């Protein structure tokens, strides 16, 4: 199994641009999580899905952030418009019965 | 609200020395407890987990952790540290189930000197 796949691995964009982060969970996992990691706030959950349905989006910072999971094998996290304070590493994770498996992350830099 | 505290931001040890990383949690019931490791530029890898039963759990890479309900702690230990153990270590709590959202501590960065 290839594990959780995230793309791109690095993204540099300018303030105001739209950014889309992608995640392919491990096949058979029915829960998917988006986390953000920054020096100031550490690792924080943004949103998670169960069977493609958003369960808890209380961690989504504001309306500029949106996440979708159109099917069991794909999810996106979109930021529109992006701001410099969105610069962070964004992790996607999927879970089996008792463990979350993390992807390698996308390092986002907003100039 | 549930929370996880890792009191040590940065720890430095010599190779071959023993290691203990502290983790305290705040939660009413017995939580689902995890330790993850993150190497530079990498994602998080699960070291070990505790749900119930024997309070001393063994993980990968020679790590172990002990759940102490009376102290609300889940400290990570290793008897002899290797240079390759240098990384950041995160303690996490699963709120309502092992696959529910995780609440992470702020992490402890481990540096290993030869």
Query: Helical amount among residues of chain A, as a percent range?
Result: under 10%
Query: Overall pLDDT of chain A, averaged?
Result: 94
Rg of chain A (CA only): 13 Å
As an assembly, this protein is heterodimer
Task: Find the count of extended strands of chain A (DSSP E, 2+ residues).
Answer: 11
Please give the largest β-sheet of chain B: 6 strands, mixed
For the sheet with most strands of chain A, the description reads:
7 strands, mixed
Assign an overall shape of chain A.
globular
**Distance between the first and last residues' Cα of chain B:** 41 Å
Number of helices of chain B: 0
Number of helices of chain A: 0
Rg result of chain B: 13 Å
Low-confidence stretches of chain A: none
Q: Percentage of helical residues of chain B?
A: under 10%
Global mean pLDDT of chain B:
92
Pattern of helices and strands of chain A = EEEEEEEEEEE
What are its keywords?
heterodimer, A: 111 residues, mainly beta, 7-stranded mixed β-sheet, 4-stranded antiparallel β-sheet, globular, B: 114 residues, 6-stranded mixed β-sheet
Structural description of this entry:
The complex is a heterodimer of chains A (111) and B (114). Chain A is an all-beta fold and 111 residues long. Chain A contains no helices and eleven strands. In chain A, strands 2, 4, 5, 6, 9, 10 and 11 form a seven-stranded mixed beta sheet that branches. The radius of gyration of chain A is 13 Å and the shape is globular. With 114 residues, chain B is mostly beta strands. Chain B is 0% helix and 52% strand. Chain B has no helices and twelve strands. In chain B, the strands form three sheets. In chain B, strands 2, 5, 6, 10, 11 and 12 form a six-stranded mixed beta sheet that branches. A four-stranded antiparallel beta sheet of chain B has the order 3-9-8-7, with no helix packed on it. Chain B has a two-stranded antiparallel ribbon with strand order 1-4. The N and C termini of chain B lie far apart (41 Å). The interface between A and B is medium-sized, with 22 and 18 residues.
């Amino acid at each position: 199994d290839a594990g959780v796949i995230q793309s791109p691995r690095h993204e540099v964009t300018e303030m105001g641009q739209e950014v889309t982060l992608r995640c392919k969970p491990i096949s058979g996992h029915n829960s998917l999580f988006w986390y953000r990691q920054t020096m100031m706030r550490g690792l924080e959950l943004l949103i998670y899905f169960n069977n493609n349905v958003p369960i808890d989006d209380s961690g989504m910072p504001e309306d500029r952030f949106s996440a979708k999971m159109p099917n069991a094998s794909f999810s996106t996290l979109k930021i529109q418009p992006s701001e410099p304070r969105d610069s962070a590493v964004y992790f996607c994770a999927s879970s089996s019965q008792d463990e979350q498996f993390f992807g390698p992350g996308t390092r986002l830099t907003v100039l | 609200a549930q929370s996880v505290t890792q009191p040590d931001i940065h720890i430095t040890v010599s190779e071959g020395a023993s290691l203990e990383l502290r983790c305290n949690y705040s939660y009413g019931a017995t939580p689902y407890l995890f330790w993850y490791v993150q190497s530079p530029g990498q994602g998080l890898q699960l070291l070990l987990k505790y749900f119930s039963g024997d309070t001393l759990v063994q993980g990968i890479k020679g790590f172990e952790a002990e759940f102490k309900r009376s102290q609300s702690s889940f400290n990570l230990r290793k008897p002899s540290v290797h240079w390759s153990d240098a990384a950041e270590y995160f303690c996490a709590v699963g709120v309502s189930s092992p696959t529910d959202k995780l609440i992470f501590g702020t992490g402890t960065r481990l540096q290993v000197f030869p």
